[in-house]
Write a structure and sequence with these properties.
The complex is a heterodimer of chains A (108) and B (352). Chain A has 108 residues and is mainly alpha-helical. Helices cover 65% and strands 6% of the residues of chain A. Chain A has one domain. In chain A, helix 5 packs across helix 6. Chain B folds into 2 domains: 46 residues, no CATH class; 241 residues, no CATH class. Chain B is 49% helix and 3% strand. Chains A and B meet through helix 2, helix 5 and helix 6 of A and helix 7, helix 10 and helix 11 of B.
Chain lengths: 108, 352
């Protein structure tokens, strides 16, 4: 098993065990969180330590730079996976993400 | 053995007069066609290959999914499994469905001349009356709105969700129905109410309003009601209760999309964007945004109606006949005070 496969399996095991037992959904969530290497590396560190590491990835958007810890402070309801998935959203779809931040992450 | 051997047996093709022995070893040259009954219809049936007929799922296709062994259901499952791989197709079906339902609501309650709209205004006016103040009972209004949506969708009363509204000042930490944690961002939940005995089949909608003092807060509350009622409708479709409710709802594609959405649900805490973009949530969100202005308009009309009626009823009940100069009746004007909108007020309401 090469390092990439090992990391992917580690993340998938975490998602299946602690986030969502549905394999389809777990694969979908894994696909998103592993889209960018820097975010995925930090997510793997988070799985080990369960704390947001000091050398954070910061995603620059119009309203400022957001790190994983910032997102977690804004919405403590997010799990670790949710925080790092939101970093991917910030990078891919900053308009949607900033609107969500401004409106306080409404959930119905 | 003797009795059995005496029983009448079908004649063999090779030896019509002999009887065959069931205890003998299987013979490779045995011809099963020899023992077939002499049904004339058998010839036709045996030529038909045993396979379900090709199924072309249309929007109006009705399939009884209660029978898991039905060849139609197996074929439907295969067709729908292909559909499930295509998220765009799923969204197209959900989009079409929410638009149909929103149009139905608009045509039922949006038309100013519609008797259903006038009836809804009267029902909403009751929410102002029972509160006893200038503000309505929002809990009653939410129930009226949810029932209006169910009316427009032809959901029978036994399958309608029950609406519970919590006080904004006493926001619970745990959902009464599901024992789920209620976060400060949560506006409402629709659940199957498994934690309660005698749970209604339509489930329970729990509302957690943040504020009822601002216009935006009230609008948000109504949107939440519409959103959660649409989820209740999706649950009915997903669980195939529609076949027992309304045969015209037997749309297997739509049922599959909602069932797939419920089974592969992404929580907002796991992926906020994925949560917001899944078809079950997007369709409910769009439905709520589309129909809430109609209900807000009805509430405004109900408010005007209630205040106008109170004034009129007050005059008719308390004013002495033509003796008080401060009353319209005293000036010889027996007509009711002019209202800012036109509505046919039923006589029984005016007299009482």
């Amino acid at each position: 098993m090469n390092p990439n496969e090992r990391d992917t399996k580690k993340a998938l095991d975490y998602i299946l065990a602690e986030e969502n037992p549905d394999e389809d959904v777990a694969n979908q969530l894994l696909l998103k969180v592993s889209k960018y290497n820097d975010i995925f590396r930090e997510f793997l560190l988070w799985i080990d330590s369960r704390t947001f590491p000091p050398q954070n990835v910061a995603i620059p958007v119009k309203s400022g730079n957001y790190t994983a810890k910032d997102i977690h402070d804004l919405n403590p309801k997010f799990s670790g996976l949710g925080v790092y998935n939101f970093l991917v959203t910030l990078r891919d779809n900053p308009a949607f993400a900033e609107t969500a931040i401004k409106s306080g992450f409404p959930v119905v | 053995m003797d009795n059995f051997s005496k029983a009448p047996r079908p004649p063999s093709k090779h030896n019509p007069s002999s009887s065959y022995d069931i205890f003998s070893k299987p013979n490779s040259s045995f011809d099963s066609s020899a023992i077939r009954p002499p049904y004339s219809a058998w010839e036709t049936l045996s030529e038909t290959p045993f396979a379900p007929p090709a199924l072309h799922l249309e929007d109006s296709t009705i399939i009884n999914m209660d029978n898991p062994y039905s060849p139609y259901k197996l074929e439907a499952d295969r067709t729908l499994a292909k559909l499930g791989e295509d998220s765009k197709a799923c969204w197209d079906i959900a989009l079409k469905d929410y638009k149909e339902k929103a149009e139905s609501f608009h045509s039922t309650f949006g038309d100013f001349d519609s008797p259903r709209r006038k009836e809804a205004i009267l029902r909403a006016a009751r929410a102002f009356e029972i509160s006893g103040s200038s503000k309505p009972s929002y809990s009653a209004l939410c129930r009226v709105f949810s029932n209006m949506i169910c009316d427009s969708m032809d959901i029978p009363k036994s399958f309608r969700p029950q609406v519970i509204m919590h006080d904004p000042k006493e926001r619970p930490r745990v959902s009464v129905v599901t024992k789920k944690r209620v976060d400060k961002e949560t506006d409402g939940l629709h659940s199957r109410a498994c934690a309660l005995e005698n749970a209604p089949p339509g489930g329970i909608i729990e509302l957690f309003p943040k504020s009822l003092k601002t216009k935006a807060g009230i609008s948000n509350l109504f949107q939440t009601v519409a959103h959660e009622t649409f989820h209740a409708y999706q649950d009915i479709i997903a669980e195939h209760k529609e076949y027992r409710i309304n045969p015209t709802w037997g749309d297997t594609k739509r049922g599959f999309v909602y069932r797939h959405g419920k089974e592969h649900y992404i929580e907002s805490s796991q992926d906020y964007e994925g949560y917001k973009k899944q078809p079950v949530e997007r369709s409910a969100e769009n439905f709520a945004v589309t129909i809430t202005p109609v209900f807000e308009n009805i509430v405004r009309s109900a408010e005007k109606y209630t205040h106008g009626r109170r004034h009129y009823v007050g005059n008719t009940l308390t004013a002495p006949q033509g003796n008080s100069p401060s009353r319209p009746a005293a000036r010889g004007n027996l007509s009711p005070p002019k209202k800012s909108f036109e509505l046919d007020i039923p006589n029984f309401l005016i007299k009482n």
